[in-house]
Amino acid sequence: MTGGPGVKDATAIVGIGQTPFAKRLPEDERTLACRAVLAALDDAGIAPGEVDALASYTMEETDEVELAKAVGLGDLTFFSKVGFGGGGSCATVAHLAAAIAAGQATVGVAWRSRKRGSGPRPWTNTTAQLPTPAQWTRPFGLLRPADEIAMLARRYMHEYGATRDHLFNVALACRNRANQNPAAIMYDRPLTREMYMTSRWISEPLCLYDNCLETDGALACVIVSAERARDCRRRPVYVHSAAQGLPAQHHGMVNYWNDDPLTGPSWTAARHLWKHADFTPADVDVAQIYDAFTPLVPLSLEGYGFCGRGEGGAFTEGGALEIGGRLPVNTGGGGLSEAYVHGFNLINEGVKQLRGIATAQVPGAATCLVTAGEGVPTSALLLRS
Amino acid sequence: MLSPVTDADGAPFWRYAAQGELRVQTCADCAEPRFPPRPCCPHCQSFTSEWRRLSGRGRIWSYVVPHPPLLPDYAAQAPYNVIVVELTDAPRIRLIGNLVPEANAPLGAFPPDRIRIGARVQAVFDDAGLPRWILERP
């Protein structure tokens, strides 16, 4: 470990696992969670009985007790759940990395299981009382996450001249990578500019292809100390830097009341992430950027320092996000075209890239940024081989 | 339609709106307005606040036009607009609402292609006490 105490390279991801992804899977979320966790442990060559730490999202329905009993985990000495939906993805790994680096545990598993494809969408639930922050938005018909992000996207386009073509560039890069990934829901379904431009609106200025998939599926990964990682079955992928970000005066999703709504939580996470890293955005070989909606990608490119403020749209031009481009992104297809499992597939794809086994492999990739949901309190990881 | 589910902090906003007044919570000690309402001033940590009456004037900061699938009551009026209004009297306080030709018009009554960011708007109140927005110069 270089530098002072901290998480830098102190831990590594040594196992990844996933279930199939589909619009509709017959098994329930708990069963899918068990399958993903066992697959990740098998990939690592670690017995379930050795696991002593767990981390997932607060929105995860399978709790630690049920999971640990079902798959036969050992005595747990650390467990953690991270809030704010897709903002929690990378933080699950970050919490385990911190716990292991601090000696609170030795083998951690992070996971997410979700039946969003066949299950209900949270915003359609009108029988439950609305959370009180919704009193400022829902009565006026701002109902869905797509509407909330579209509002920021419209302002972003107005302020900086970003266009629908820029958003299409994001959707296309993800789709092209999914077309190379047999596990992706959009494996055999190419996207064209005409399809994008003539598709139906969801919330203007966002159309169908600006929105992520609705997916059933589960994923997991295994984290151990760097020392332990050397004895594992696979090449370790080190957690080089990790951060969460909840900016001062932030308001999740509908962050219109902040002084500067277009600099979201990614900016806060990025400051901490780079402060503890030995490399800079220019040294990132491949990025997995949370893409529940296409505008999150240009906003995140700015937040994480790949370009200046307002330049995120223009950054996507000239194939920059494609393999061989300036910054290949979402190389498994991302939430837009591989699967939307609250961004956990982005973590596992980052590991695949640094192992050199990705379906759309960036040659010689040695560094990868993975991000969680922008627009909500978020998190991010810098991984390196 | 969804009615506002108010809490103790937010209730005064809706009470004043029902009287046809647009007011925002303001720190009684340092005079900083804040939104959404909350118990404590983030600038000076004071727990005393008052509700300052505003002119109701503002500018459109951004807008969207939702299309189905939506909740049934909203789908019936789609496509409609939702706007964010930056208040003239309290910059950086931005209220969500709808641009309508008149206070009690349906959600989708204003043609979306006539909405412009920066357009000046004025608050009006419908019969249910919900703030709506009309163009200052239609």
UniProtKB/TrEMBL annotation, chain A:
Gene3D superfamilies from the UniProt entry: 3.40.47.10
InterPro entries reported for this sequence: Thiolase, Thiolase-like, Thiolase_C_2
Pfam families from the UniProt entry: Thiolase_C_1
CDD domains linked: SCP-x_thiolase
Domain Thiolase C-terminal intervals: 260-377
SUPFAM superfamilies on file: Thiolase-like
Domain of life: Bacteria
GO-annotated molecular function: acyltransferase activity, transferring groups other than amino-acyl groups
The protein's name in its UniProt record: Lipid-transfer protein
Organism annotation: Streptomyces antibioticus
Taxonomic path: Bacteria, Bacillati, Actinomycetota, Actinomycetes, Kitasatosporales
From TrEMBL, chain B:
ChsH2 C-terminal OB-fold domain boundaries: 51-126
Signal peptide annotation: none
Protein name: OB-fold domain-containing protein
Positions of the ChsH2 rubredoxin-like zinc ribbon domain: 14-47
Organism of provenance: Streptomyces antibioticus
Domain of life: Bacteria
Pfam families xref list: OB_ChsH2_C, zf-ChsH2
